[in-house]
Each structure stands twice: as C-alpha cells, then as structure tokens.
C-alpha cells in the first residue's frame, strides 16, 4: 500500500493564500499609520518610537484587548466583511478612551477555517480604516488558518490596543461627585454586544436576516451589521477641553452596569429613561423575541454607546463640543450621593 505524502496544504493550510491576503491588505493598512511607527524589515513585530512619550511628565500606558463576539456569525451569513473590523476597533480603542488615554497603536488576530484572501483583506481593511478614524496605528497582526477546528467560512477576530495618558490627567471615579451631569452619546446601533441574544431571536422566531420590519425600512440583517461608532477622538476632545470627569463605554452588561464602574462608592447615577428614545432596532428585537425590559437593559446599549460624566457647569459646553463633532448627545441623568450604583428611572 502506497501512503500519500503528507503536506501542509493537504492538511488544509494554504500558505500561498495567506501571502496573497497580505499583499491585498498592504495598501489599506498603510493608511492606519502614525509618525511614530518604525518599519520592521522582518515583519515579525510592530515597532513604535517610544521617544514620542518624552513630552509627558509621567506617562501611563493603557492597554485593552477584546473581540466582537458572535457578530462575526452574522457577517459570515451575510457575506459582508468590510464592517466587522470597525466593531473590533470600537471595542478595543474606546475602552482606552474611557481613562483619557490617547490610542497609539493596535494589533489584530484573525482565526479562520480557510484563508480567502479577499475576505481577509476586507476584514483587515475595515480595521485599518477604523484605526485611522480613531487616530491610532495598526502596527501588525496575525491571520491563522485552523482547518478542522473551524469550517471553511467560519472566522473569529480579536485585537489589542495601547494608549497613553498623563498621570495627572487620568479620568475615573475619583473625579466624580454629586451634582455632576451624565451625558449620553448616541450609539450607531447594537455595536458588538448582545448578538448571542440576537441570534437566539433569529433562531426561535419568524424573523430572518432578510425580514424588512416596518420600523426599519431595510433588511434586518443590514441593520444588524451597522458598525460600531468610534468615540476615541470625541472623548479626547472633551478631556483636552477639561469638560469631563469620567467616561463609561456601554458594552456587555448594558448602560447601568457599565456606568456604575465609573462611579465612586459614595455616589449614584440616576438616569432618566424618558430623556431619549432607543433606535428602532431595539424595539424590533424586543417585539420579535418578547424580551422583558430588564433583559433588554442588561444586554444592549439601547442607543447609548458611551456615557460622559461632566461637571454641572460644563454640560452645555460639552454638548456644544459634541455637536460640533457631529456626535448626537443629550443630558441622560445626574450624579447624587449614594453607594456606587446607576439606575434607570
């Protein structure tokens, strides 16, 4: 019996496809660059000139890592790969912005069942575009082919980012006090949290990705893939103007739980549910899935992608600055004496 020769390609890994993906994404990645980036001829590492930090008196490096959860499954099912990278950058870089850190650079990791060069280039191209919007560099990444573990059309992605903030400019709960005002910064939609519940609703009801709800006037799948709004530069603009005490990135756990993380143990945040109307996508999902309101509150951002806690006397100026930057925002609530909780009233 003649045994067949074993090769990497026979095992399901296509090195040539990986190399073509790298070539396809090069020009798009080049757009996500900062002056401090130093080219590494070997390509094994991303280099960043740390001498740029010499202008800081006491620079604190901030780091964050995240993924986009099961939203990747909807991108796969719809065959749309150019927006999911925006979600990754939003999840990673906007976490850095919460403490007032300027994002410096980011790396990404994509695992897939089969490398399809055009698909990988679209994903990474989206990451690069979003990095440019956030003002950070995309200095490297990795695409890994996992045949046998993932189906050929399956993929997942994650990323890590690094930023810097002056120690005495660090934002957070210690700056927050009674009388502060909570601003809501509008989300672009669901962003990248709660998609396991979304998929459950799609699997157990008559709703499909092709359904066109009257409230949306476009297919549900198209609405669900709307990319995450990226707030980093808007948050930094508020911080540089001295108009903010703390931020809360509204991701998994919902508005109240995430905002509570930015409160001291001596304060509560009372939020007015009547101060805004959640975008229609949330009403559609709640209606199709018969989702109780408490479940909606703890699963989705409900239209608030970022919250800013600002001094009472700075609220109008902060709202004006956000309006100039074309970020819809409003007064969401106030900070009162308490025990470190946030509540939707």
UniProtKB/TrEMBL annotation:
Pathway info: Purine metabolism; IMP biosynthesis via de novo pathway; 5-amino-1-(5-phospho-D-ribosyl)imidazole from N(2)-formyl-N(1)-(5-phospho-D-ribosyl)glycinamide: step 2/2
Keywords for this protein: ATP-binding, Cytoplasm, Ligase, Nucleotide-binding, Purine biosynthesis
Main localization (coarse): cytoplasm
Chain ranges of the PurM-like C-terminal domain: 177-340
UniProt GO MF annotations: ATP binding; phosphoribosylamine-glycine ligase activity; phosphoribosylformylglycinamidine cyclo-ligase activity
Gene3D superfamilies: PurM-like C-terminal domain, PurM-like, N-terminal domain
Record field: catalytic activity: 2-formamido-N(1)-(5-O-phospho-beta-D-ribosyl)acetamidine + ATP = 5-amino-1-(5-phospho-beta-D-ribosyl)imidazole + ADP + phosphate + H(+)
Any GO BP annotation: adenine biosynthetic process
Residues of the PurM-like N-terminal domain: 60-165
Subcellular location: Cytoplasm
Top-level lineage group: Bacteria
Any Pfam family: AIRS_C
EC number per UniProt: 6.3.3.1
Entry GO CC: cytosol
Family: Belongs to the AIR synthase family.
Name by which UniProt lists this protein: Phosphoribosylformylglycinamidine cyclo-ligase
Gene source species: Actinomadura craniellae
């Amino acid at each position: 019996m003649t045994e067949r020769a074993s090769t990497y390609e026979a095992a399901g890994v296509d090195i040539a496809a990986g190399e073509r993906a790298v070539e396809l994404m090069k020009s798009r990645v080049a757009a996500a660059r900062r002056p401090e980036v130093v080219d590494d001829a070997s390509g094994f590492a991303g280099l960043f000139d740390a001498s740029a930090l010499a202008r800081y008196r006491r620079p604190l490096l901030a780091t964050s890592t995240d993924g986009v959860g099961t939203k990747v499954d909807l991108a796969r099912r719809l065959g749309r790969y150019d927006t999911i990278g925006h979600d990754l950058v939003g999840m990673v870089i906007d976490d850095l912005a919460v403490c007032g850190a300027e994002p410096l650079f980011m790396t990404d990791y994509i695992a897939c069942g089969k490398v399809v060069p055009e698909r990988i280039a679209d994903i990474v191209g989206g990451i690069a575009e979003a990095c440019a919007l956030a003002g950070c560099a995309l200095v490297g990444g990795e695409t890994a082919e996992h045949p046998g573990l993932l189906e050929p059309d399956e993929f997942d992605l994650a990323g890590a980012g690094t930023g810097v903030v002056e120690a005495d400019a660090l934002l957070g709960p210690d700056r927050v006090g009674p009388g502060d005002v909570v601003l809501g910064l509008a989300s672009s939609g669901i962003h990248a949290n709660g998609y396991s519940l979304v998929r459950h609703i799609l699997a157990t009801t008559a709703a499909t990705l092709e359904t066109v709800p009257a409230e949306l006037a476009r297919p549900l799948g198209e609405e669900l893939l709307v990319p995450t709004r990226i707030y980093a530069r808007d948050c930094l603009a508020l911080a540089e103007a001295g108009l903010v005490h703390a931020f809360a990135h509204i991701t998994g756990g919902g508005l109240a739980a995430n905002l509570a993380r930015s409160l001291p143990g001596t304060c509560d945040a009372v939020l007015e549910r009547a101060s805004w109307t959640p975008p229609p996508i949330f009403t559609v999902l709640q209606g199709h899935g018969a989702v109780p309101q408490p479940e909606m509150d703890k699963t989705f951002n409900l239209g608030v992608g970022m919250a800013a806690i600002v001094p009472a006397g700075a609220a109008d100026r902060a709202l004006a600055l956000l309006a100039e930057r074309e970020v819809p925002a409003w007064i969401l609530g106030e900070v009162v004496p308490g025990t470190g909780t946030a509540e939707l009233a």
